[in-house]
């Protein structure tokens, strides 16, 4: 029996980068968490302690900030620039993965007018990307995280099997709430990323609000189908949807009825609905997808 080194990668995770763009008095904030992960010919550092093939994670961090000096632009483009740089920085690096989470800031209203340089963190989900580059080609993922949405009606859940452990009551009207995590893969290396993201997000929200739902699974499929129909560059979309249960509170002990108005918002446990929707002619997924 021999013991060998398996898959490995390394990098600087969660570099917190903020850039201020100034147009006179008018400022714009880009607030990112950037994670770099490199892989390649890294046997020596694990097996012999020789570090001559290791681009230090500290250097990777510095590179992220240095690249931001010239402007960031769309996060997909920034990730592509960084990934292409890292994969050509050292012969020992064969693949570079750059993941970015964009934290949204909303311009404040001050004195009834949009402020020039005051912002509030906005709670409407975060845009994400992950780019992998092998030196020849790049694979681009987009997505959204923590996009909390709720329908206060238009949701049913019934017709499920009952066994000796089933207590859940069938309902024809319930609250449906979730925090959408969606990751999609583009089939292109170049696109109008801002427009693709905006369209995907708007379409997804439209499908969430517009689907009369028999289950969160059905809503998942409706959202995925709508995004694929709206954005031709997206080949496949993957969702993780926690079912944020809202239970009707029993007010009878207090001599009160509850005609579907007072709910307990439970935070755990929660149903976790996961699924992928794709084109049947989708090109093969790249290395960052699995
Ligand atoms: O939309 C739902 N899907 C389920 O699979 C499920 N299971 C459950 O208890 N409630 C729900 N709701």
Gap between N and C termini: 30 Å
Shape: globular
Q: What is the radius of gyration computed over CA atoms, rounded to a whole number of angstroms? A: 23 Å
- Biggest sheet architecture: 8 strands, antiparallel
Q: What helical percentage do the residues reach?
A: 10-25%
General description of the model:
This protein has 290 residues and is of the alpha+beta class. The protein has five helices and twelve strands. It has helices at 43-47, 57-68, 75-89, 193-210, 216-230; strands at 15-23, 26-40, 93-102, 105-110, 113-121, 126-133, 138-151, 176-186, 234-243, 246-248, 263-265, 271-278. Helix 2 crosses helix 3 and helix 4 runs antiparallel to helix 5 (216-230). The longest helix has 18 residues, at 193-210. The structure holds uric acid. Residues 157, 168, 215-217, 243, 271 line the site of uric acid. Residues 157, 168, 215-217, 243, 271 line the site of uric acid (URC).
Question: Gist?
Answer:
This protein is of the alpha+beta class and 290 residues long. Helices cover 22% and strands 37% of the residues.
Question: What is the topological layout?
Answer:
Blueprint: E1 15-23, E2 26-40, H1 43-47, H2 57-68, H3 75-89, E3 93-102, E4 105-110, E5 113-121, E6 126-133, E7 138-151, E8 176-186, H4 193-210, H5 216-230, E9 234-243, E10 246-248, E11 263-265, E12 271-278
Antiparallel strand pairs: 1-2, 2-3, 3-6, 4-5, 6-7, 7-8, 8-9, 9-12, 10-11
Residues 157, 168, 215-217, 243, 271 line the site of uric acid.
């Amino acid at each position: 029996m021999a013991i060998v080194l398996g898959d490995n990668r390394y990098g600087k995770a969660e570099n917190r980068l903020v850039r201020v763009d100034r147009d006179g008095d008018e400022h714009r904030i880009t607030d990112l968490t950037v994670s770099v992960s490199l892989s390649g010919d890294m046997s020596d550092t694990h097996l012999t302690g020789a570090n001559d093939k290791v681009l230090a994670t500290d250097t990777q961090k510095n590179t992220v900030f240095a690249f931001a000096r010239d402007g960031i632009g769309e996060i997909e483009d920034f990730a592509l620039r960084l990934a292409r740089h890292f994969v050509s920085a050292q012969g020992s690096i064969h693949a570079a993965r750059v993941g970015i989470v964009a934290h949204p800031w909303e311009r404040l209203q001050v004195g009834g007018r949009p402020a020039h340089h005051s912002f509030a963190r906005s709670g409407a989900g975060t845009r994400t990307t992950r780019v992998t580059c092998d030196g020849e080609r790049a694979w681009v993922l987009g997505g959204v995280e923590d996009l909390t949405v709720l329908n206060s009606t238009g949701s049913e859940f019934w017709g499920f099997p009952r066994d000796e452990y089933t207590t859940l009551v069938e309902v024809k009207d319930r609250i449906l709430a979730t925090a959408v995590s969606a990751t999609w893969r583009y089939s292109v290396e170049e696109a109008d990323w801002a427009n693709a993201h905006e369209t995907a997000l708007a379409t997804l929200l439209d499908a969430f609000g517009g689907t009369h739902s028999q289950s969160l699974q059905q809503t998942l499929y409706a959202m995925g189908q709508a995004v694929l129909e709206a954005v031709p560059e997206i080949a496949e979309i993957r969702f993780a949807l926690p079912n944020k249960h809202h239970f009707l509170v029993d007010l009878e002990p207090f001599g009160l009825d509850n005609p579907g108005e007072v709910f307990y918002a439970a935070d755990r446990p929660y149903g976790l609905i996961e699924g992928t929707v794709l084109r049947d002619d989708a090109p093969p997924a790249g290395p960052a997808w699995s």
